[in-house]
Amino acid sequence: MHEYLLELQQVYYTYTGAKKTALNGLTLKIPTGKKCALVGQNGCGKTTLFLLANGLYKPNKGSVIWKGQPIEYNRKSLIQLRQQVGLIFQDPEQQLVASTVEEDISYGLCNLGLPEIEIKTRVEQALEEFDLIELAQTPVHHMSLGQKKRVSIADVMVLQPQLLLLDEPTAYLDKLHSRNLMATLKKIHHHGTSVLMASHDLDLIYRWADWIFVMDSGKLILEGEPKDVFNERQLIESLQLEVPLIHDILCTLESNDETTIPKLKQQISKYTLY
Q1: Helical H runs in the chain?
Q2: Burial level of 113, CB count in 10 A (0-12/13-18/19+)?
Q3: Which residue range is the domain that position 168 belongs to?
Q4: Environment class of residue 91 by beta-carbon count within 10 Å: exposed (0-12), middle (13-18) or buried (19+)?
Q5: What sign has the CA pseudo-torsion 253, 255, 258, 262?
Q6: 173 alpha-carbon distance from chain centroid
Q7: Residue 176 is part of a domain; what is its CATH number?
Q8: Residue 63 lies in a domain
Q9: For residues 243 and 212, is the Cβ–Cβ distance under 8 A?
Q10: Per-residue pLDDT of the chain (274 residues; tens, 9 = 90+)
């Protein structure tokens, strides 16, 4: 087994007509079997990284490596890559292409030219696994945003990828749908899929991730386990990011000094509760 599934080595990418480089010598390695998170301000290069990782974009300079081998940008190689590296966009509308849920989930399998019996079996499994059986014949445009998110994940997972990339998966979702989505991701990871998720919800990231990458201006600034990353408070705040409340509370509890309770009250009072 490869220690790292996907590696970017000194990758540069600039959008056509743009004055600013989106990725600026990015070097990053996604470890096998981990729940990884990608954080940074808007425009730091998170989405561009995903599009390069999935082979939708080709770097201007540098290498994108999948399981030890540089990506080849021919049709056959890219089709194989996209079966193994699944990408979920922030807006599920960008991903849903068919009339009904069942048709949408089968779309990618049909494009692979798989036998009809295998397509039927995989679609049925996906409908059951993602709690979509009752919605199988529902028109996609009649569903709620949370349901569409579930279908977009099923669309990708039916291809049985080894790495799942998610761009702001909880965006626009209420707390209930966010919890349901995170439970789905927990199940996906438990079944053996490595996950990389970009999110601005740092409290969620702190609780969920095994490993965090911090990006700024198209570069990797910091990486490590959640506690170690957010212990770098000065650096995190200089990047206009916040240290999660739960991290502050845990650090205060671990300090074991006489001012613990007043410190906790002061920390909690800094956060607005909605």
Answers
A1: 46-53, 75-84, 101-111, 116-129, 145-157, 175-190, 202-208, 226-230, 233-238, 245-255, 260-269
A2: exposed
A3: 4-227
A4: middle
A5: negative
A6: 15
A7: 3.40.50.300
A8: yes
A9: no
A10: 679 999 999 999 999 999 899 999 999 999 999 999 999 999 999 999 999 999 999 999 999 999 999 999 999 999 999 999 999 998 888 888 889 999 999 998 998 888 999 999 999 999 998 889 999 999 998 998 888 988 999 999 999 999 999 999 888 888 888 888 888 899 999 999 999 999 999 999 999 999 999 999 999 999 999 999 999 999 999 999 999 988 888 877 777 666 666 666 565 555 444 3
Length of the chain: 274
The tokens describing 257, both together, are 């000094």
- Locus of tokens 């910091």: 222
Judge whether 55 lies within some domain: yes
195: left (phi over 0), alpha (psi -120 to 50) or beta: beta
For 154, other C-beta atoms within 10 Å of its C-beta total 21
As a whole number of angstroms, the distance between CA 232 and CA 223 comes to: 11
Q: Which amino acid is at 220?
A: L
State pTM to two decimals: 0.89
**With contact defined as beta carbons under 8 Å apart, do 29 and 51 qualify?**
no
Q: Is residue 250 part of a domain?
A: no
- Please check whether residue 70 lies inside any domain of the structure: yes
Q: Residue type for 130, please? A: F
Number of domains present in the structure of the chain: 1
**Burial environment of residue 269 by CB neighbours within 10 A (0 to 12, 13 to 18, 19 or more):** exposed
* 193 Cβ contact list (under 8 Å, min separation 6): 157, 161, 162, 163, 164
